[in-house]
Amino acid sequence: MKKVILFDIDYTLFDSSKFRKKLYSAIKISLKKKDIHVPDEKLVNAYKVLRNEVPYFSPRIFAKKLGNEIGEKIDEDFLETEIFGSIIFNHNLYEEVLEVFKMLSKIEDLEIGIFSTGEEKFQGQKINEIINLLNSKHIHIHLYKDDNLTTVVKKYKEMKLILVDDVLKILAKASSIDQDLITIWIERKEKSEFNKNDYIGDFKPSHEIKNLNEVVSIIKNI
Asked: Which residues have a Cβ under 8 Å from the Cβ of 69 and sit 6 or more positions away?
């Protein structure tokens, strides 16, 4: 049976805490070009307001929230262009990711993909360094991951599906849809403050790992 492994992006492949520091710095530098000076706490507050309303980061929505924080209108087109024109997306993958993906790409009958929350363009930039190791038909990026979970899982009913995620509730829900899929929970030391990872009922992931290197042996033993 063909196997498909789908990885979450943030806190699974991509160090979002590291990236956010770069993002805030890039935004401050960009806004100075417009003579807009933003205190660090305003950036943090705007981000929290955004994420409490939607489960993903959007440059355009962020521009509105930050404008509300500082009492000054921010040009959404300008900020979005500045963010995507910067180099902040580079070198934020966890250190083992590239080598793990190279090893996985050599496993027979295994195809590698993505299942992530977020804006497609924004999330896509985060995985540019490994895009050549992914199968494009297995890249699923949705604004609301939970709402698309059933559709994505059922798409692979004729294959052996493996999900790797740092959020237990996603893995628990996926397992309730298809009890035969394999769930791998990665617990990074960096954690999202917006995703609680308490155990859910009697659900236990198939595997619990601290580093993606462990995924290679798990797949080889399936």
From this structure: 42, 45, 46, 49
